[in-house]
Amino acid sequence: MNIRYGILSAAFAFGVVMPAQVADIAAGREMAETVCAACHGANGVSVSPRVPNLAAQRAGYISKLLKAFRSKKRKHGIMSGLVGVLSDSAFGDVAAYYASLPGAPDGAAKSRPPANYIAKRVTLPADMVGLTHYFTFNHKGRKQLRYVYANKVALDAAKAGKELPDGSIIVVEAFKVEMGPGKKPVVGGDGFYISTERAGFTAMERRAGWGDDFPGMIRNGNWHYAVFKADRSPRPNVNQASCLACHLPHAKNSYLFTMKALTDAARK
User: Fold this and answer.
1) Where does the chain show beta strands of DSSP type E?
2) CA 87 to CA 213: how far, in whole Å?
3) Are residues 98 and 173 in the same domain?
4) Segment 5-61, tens digit of pLDDT
5) Is 118 inside any structural domain?
6) Span 92-110, average pLDDT
7) Do residues 222 and 163 share a domain?
8) Same domain, 144 and 238
């Protein structure tokens, strides 16, 4: 008789409860320090008041939440996109690691995001030179009107039906809008919000080797992201983790939300 099978049979016969798979805290720590730390901190103390601390949280609770994000029973664009391909054992590992840490002291300062996640590579083309407007949309959540632009490298690739290559640049220009009764944006005859003043820019750019800055689990090819103020100056200390996680589910579309619109515009 197979010894392992014999042991299991005996255990069930006598009503013995076999222990669940033991979590690998070392593996959980590696995941926490390379991926989770970007928002929750390697030590479980988050980088923002909007992100919960995980230090000393119950492992079962963390695992349950991660499974809910994966199944989308609990909706969260960033978390669902990030944990969608992870296994139950990976959830158990990272949950056990955070549960093993001491809780954050009251009033403790928030963690700083790992240096590799801080936006610093992307530049905004001066006066949008070399960019072509290809899409306009109302951002209902932010109550903004947005214009989306692409450079020639991206347009040529989209026209050929290819993945956007290194050298591609996508820029979103956001505008504040006129507000009507009930603080609802005023819509013009063309169906778009009526803009007032520029609110700022977001940009994504990819260059050879840039993706090496991020772990494979969250990497978006070679894309990096940045946010700019209305006067075109970069916003300091922008954490790219949320950008990477939001764009991750769109890998088949070059990590771009508006790939279809870009392709349609490039082929006109």
Assistant:
1) 131-139, 144-151, 169-177, 195-206, 223-228
2) 24
3) no
4) 343 333 334 444 434 567 889 998 988 888 888 899 888 999 888 888 999 999 999
5) no
6) 84
7) yes
8) yes
Q: Domain of residue 157: give its range.
A: 126-266
140 is a domain residue: yes
| 169-177 sheet: strands from edge to edge | 131-139, 144-151, 169-177, 195-206, 223-228
Strands 144-151 and 131-139: antiparallel
What pTM was estimated for this model as a whole? 0.83
Nearest by Cα to 256 from 207, 221, 228: 221
Q: What is the DSSP letter of 192?
A: S
pLDDT tens digits, 226-241 = 999 999 999 999 999 9
DSSP for 71-133, please give it: HTSS--HHHHHHHTT--HHHHHHHHHHHHTSPPPPTTPPPPPPPGGGB--S--PPGGGTTEEE
- The domain tally of the chain equals 2
Give domain status of residue 9, yes or no: yes
Give the tokens for residue 32: 């926490």
Domain assignment of residue 120, yes or no: no
Rounded to whole angstroms, how far apart are CA atoms 7 and 3?
Answer: 6
Rounded CA separation 32/44 (Å): 8
The domain that contains 75 carries what CATH number? 1.10.760.10
Residue type, 55: A
Cα separation, 214 vs 208, whole angstroms = 13
